Amino acid sequence: NKQVLVKEFFSGFPKDSDMLFTTSSINLKLPEGSNGVLVKNLYLSCDPYIQYLMSKPSLPSNIDSVQPGSPIRGLGVSKVIDSRNQNFREGDLVWGLTGWEEYSVISSPGYLFKIQHTDLPLSYYTGILGMPGMTAYAGFYEVCAPKKGETVFVSAASGAVGQLVGQFAKLMGCYVVGSAGSKEKVDLLKSKFGFDEAFNYKEEPNLDAALKRYFPEGIDVYFDNVGGKMLDAVLLNMRIRGRISLCGMMSQYNLDRPEGVQNLFNLIPKRIRMEGFVVTDHYHLYDKFLEMVIPLIKEGKIVYVEDIVEGIENAPSALIGLFHGRNVGKQVVVVDSQ
Ligand code: NDP
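That is the input. Now the predicted structure with NDP docked in place:
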């Protein structure tokens, strides 16, 4: 069983030396009395929160950390090989919480969804049809409460979540601008995902001026994936009764001391609503979300870009790449495409 183990708790940017690629043996049958499932992992999802799971618990988090010596835990797409759980049968395709290894025993499969629609790429269940898709859906429709014609700004806009938020906003008839960290990503935002405008935040000496250029009348909705300086500049450019959904803070996770945001005062005179959210609180909407998104994919009204890496041995560098913006689109690792 090829595995990627946590070697050291992560601190700062994740490094190769924090993880260990190894091979061990596994019994391909579950013990009597188990209520779990044994799965063969097909695709693993590289997600920013994995950094939290592998860090010494310090920040308040709704996720338990993984101890050194254990396989990295994360979301993936898997096939059930053996089941002692009434909800799953041998041969079922599932997505949910698994291990960074070829085969995993999932003793309490609470965070495991049976895949019903197998006529779309299975890897999509690490992205558009899985947790990042639900994040974009809940964060945009539920938290941002957008209206047709509003102005929308999305940061980390070409990533797993951002590319969908931008497309949802366009479908709703909003004016949408995205920021990303390279020319290739900026081109993708405009040519593939249909953003009205996009810019490379790394090339903007003054983020406030950049936002004023794209939003001369201000921003109604900000979907924040990065926090920090970008959030601060956005606060200066929000419109009255604007909404900010705090999805993530990519620019802050690896800092010893997170950057202070200076411009919070703007929330008061502009009556801005700023709200953090956690996607798992919204999973009751999953079936409704699939009903909306699957036809959109099939009709070509929504596209999804994945950055696919072959081989579990390459998973550590793919994960590290997220924190340096090396992924173009949703970062997926193929363990076995069958
Ligand atoms: P992405 O696919 O967008 O990958 C991360 C991207 O973040 C990188 O490609 C990079 O893009 C950008 N980035 C990296 N470092 C920085 C930095 N210092 N400053 C600004 N941008 C940076 O990730 P996801 O779409 O999976 O996740 C997006 C956000 O959503 C994350 O903050 C994540 O934690 C959050 N999230 C929150 C959830 C919730 O329940 N609230 C659930 C899922 C995700 P670029 O080249 O453009 O800089």
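Residues 47-49, 132, 135, 156, 158-162, 180-182, 185, 225-226, 247-251, 277-279, 322-323, 325, 327, 330 surround NDP (CB under 6 Å).
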